[in-house]
Amino acid sequence: MRLPHWDASPDALRLVRRLVFATWFLRVAFKPLEQLALIPASLLQPVGPLALLPAPLEQLLHAVPFLYALKAATLLAFALVIAGVALRPMMVASCVLMTVFACLWRSFAGHMDHESVLILFAGYLLTSFELADARAERNGEVPAPGAPTRAGIPLTAILAVVCLAYTMVGVFRTVRGTPEVFTTNSLTFWALRNAYETAEPAWGWGKYVLQYPWLGRMLDGGFPVITLFELTALTALFSRWYRYTFLLVMLPFHVLSLFVLDVFFWENMVLYVLFFEFGRRGVHQDRSLALR
Amino acid sequence: MAEPGTLAPPAAPRRDRWRPDRWRPDRRLLGRLVVGWAGTLAAAHLFRYGLRLPNLLMVAESLAYLALFAGLLSLASMRAWLFAIPAPHRVALAGFVGLVTWGQLVVKSRDTFPFTAWTMYARAEPRRLVEYYRYHGVDAQGRAVDVDPADEFTFVNSAEIASRVKYIGRPATTPEGTAGREEARTRVRDLLTAVAAAYNRSHPDAPLRSLEFVHYAWDYRTQPLAEVVPSPVLSIQVTPEPAR
Asked: Which residues does chain B have within 8 Å of residue A121's beta carbon, measured at their own beta carbons?
C-alpha cells in the first residue's frame, strides 16, 4: 500500500503550488491592511515573531506607506511564484512577507482564528521542500526508482499536516473538554453567541436554535460524529474510501458552520483538492511491490 | 524491489515495508520519536509555564500525540514513505510537525503564531451567558444609526473584531474599583474614537456626532431575548474633523 500522491507528477505539484499561492494572493489583495493605521496602539497586541521587535520598530510597521509597500511587495512575490520566476527565492520571500502580513492584521484580533492558517502551512511546506530538493541535489541524492516522486513528497506532507490539524482539534476537545463539551449543549450556546456577537453576521442562522430546537439537536448530535472524524483524520493517508467519506462529512459540516456558527475558512478548504489522488493509482505496482 | 532511497536503511526487512499496512513498530524509530516528543513537550512547557511543576493537562495531551505518532510510524506504509524520501525532506517535515505540535501544546496562539493551537469548540462556557456589544450613534442630522465596526475595519473578520471587543468589554463592565476597569474603559474610548473616525470617512454626508457602546448579557435558558436590558458602558462626543 502506498500513501497518496506517491507518484504525483511535476505538473501536479505546479498546480497545487499555483493554487496555494493564488489563494494567498487573493487573501492579500482583498485585505485592506492600510486600515490598520486607523487603529490606536492601545488596541493592538503584537503577534508571533513581531512581538520580538522593539516597540518603536513595531510601530513603524503600522504606518500607511509601509502597509502599502508591504502589500505591493507581497503581491509581487506571489505573482512571481505563480509564474514560476526565480521560484526558490520568491517562495522564501513570499513566506516571510505573508507571515508579516498575517501577523500585522491579527494584531487587532482578539483571538487567533484559523483563517488561512492551513493554507499558510501549505505554502511553508512547499517552500521547505523546495529548499530540501536543493539540498538533496547538492548532496547528490537521486530519487530511487519506486520511491515517492519529488513532486509527490510535498503533496503527501501537506495532506498529512491538514489531517494532523483536524486530529489536534479532536484531541484537544477530547482531552480538555470531555465530557462537559458534549453533555451541556455547548454548540447551542456557541451558535447563539456567534450569531449575536457580531452586529451583522453573514447568515446568523444560529439565532434560530432556540426557535427551532431540532437545529440545536442536530448540532449537538452531530458534534461527537464530527469529533470522531477529526480524531481519525489521519486515516485519510491510508484509505481512499476514508478520504471520500471524510469529505462527505466535513464539506456539509463546514458549509453548515457558515450558516449556523458564522465560521467559514474557504482558504483552508482549497486544500481538500489533496484528498483526491494526483498521479497514477498504480494498483498493479502496489501488488507487485507487496509480493516481492 | 528497487532501493527506495539513498538514505538510512530501516530496521525492518525491506520487503516487509511494502506490504499493505502491516503493524510493525520499529524500536529505533520509536526511540527517536520519544526523544523528539520529550524535547517538544519540554520546549512547550518552558515557553508556557517556565520552570514550574509539570502541567498535567499539557502532559496528557502530549501523550496522546506520542501515541498517535507512534501508531503512525508503526504502520508499514507510513514508514516506507518516510524512509524513501530524501533526508532533507524528512528533517523539514519532522521539524514542521514538531513546531505544529509545540504550538498546539502551548495554547497561546498569539505568542506561537503561525503555529496556533487548534482548540475549536473545546471548552464549555460555564456561565452560559451570551454577551454582546452594540454601537449606537447619532449623526449630524440627529438620526439614530447603528454602527458596525466590521463594516468600517474590513481587514479583519467580524469574529476577530468581536473577540477583541470582548476582551476589552468584559473588564470595562466590571464594578467600579475592579482592577483593570479604568484601563479597559480607556481602550473602549479609543475603540469608539477609531470606529467613529472610520465611519465618518465612509459617511462624509452624515458624520457621527456621538457614539455609545452598549453591553448586552443574555441568559438564554431563563430569559426571553426581548427582556434583555441594554447596559450603556460609555459614550463619546465626536468632534468633526477640520475640512482639508
From this structure: 96, 100, 114
In a domain, B36, yes or no: yes
**Looking at chain A, which residue has its C-alpha nearest residue B106?**
A172
Any domain includes B146 = yes
Closest-CA residue of B relative to A196 is B132
Mean pLDDT, chain B, whole residue set: 89
Q: Which residues of A touch B57 (CB under 8 A)?
A: 175-176
CB-based contact, A256 to chain B, within 8 Å? no
What's the whole-number mean pLDDT along residues A108-135? Answer: 93
**B22-26 long-range contacts, CB within 8 A, separation 24+:** B22/B75, B22/B76, B23/B74, B23/B75, B23/B76, B24/B74, B24/B76, B24/B79, B25/B70, B25/B73, B25/B74, B26/B73, B26/B74, B26/B79
Q: pLDDT tens, B112-163?
A: 999 999 999 998 877 779 999 999 999 999 999 999 999 999 999 888 999 9
Residues of chain B found within 8 Å of residue A176, distances taken between Cβ atoms: 57, 61, 119, 122-123
pTM of the model: 0.90
Could you tell me whether strands B208-219 and B144-147 are parallel, antiparallel, or unpaired per DSSP bridges?
unpaired
* pLDDT averaged over every residue in chain A: 90
Scanning A180-209 for CB atoms below 8 A from B yields 180-181, 184, 186-187, 189-190, 192-194, 196-202
Question: Does residue B6 lie within any of the structural domains?
Answer: no
One DSSP character per residue, B142-159 reads: S-EEEE-HHHH-TTS-HH
Q: How confident is the model at residue B4 (pLDDT cuts 50, 70, 90)?
A: very low
Question: Which among B20, B124, B220 has CB closest to A181?
Answer: B124
Q: DSSP letter at B75?
A: B
What pLDDT does residue A96 have? Answer: 97
Can you give the residue range of the structural domain that contains B41? Answer: 14-112
The average pLDDT across A153-162 equals: 97
CB contact under 8 A, B88 and A132: yes
Beta carbons of B121 and A105 less than 8 Å apart: no
Q: Which of B84, B100, B160 sits opposite A113 (nearest CB)?
A: B160
B134 and B232 together in one domain: yes
- What is residue B120's three-state secondary structure? coil
Cβ of B61 within 8 Å of Cβ of A286? The answer is: no
Q: Render pLDDT for A73-118 as a digit per residue (tens, 0 to 9).
A: 999 999 999 999 999 999 999 999 999 999 999 999 988 888 789 9
Q: Give dist(CA A274, CA A12) in Å, integer.
A: 10
In a domain, B50, yes or no: yes
Q: Which residues of chain A lie closer than 8 angstroms to B17, CB-CB?
A: none
Number of domains in chain B: 2
Residues of B in contact with A34 (CB under 8 A): 155
Q: How far apart are CA A60 and CA A74, in angstroms?
A: 18
- Band the pLDDT of A288: cuts 50, 70, 90: very low
Q: Which residue has the cell 523546495?
A: A130
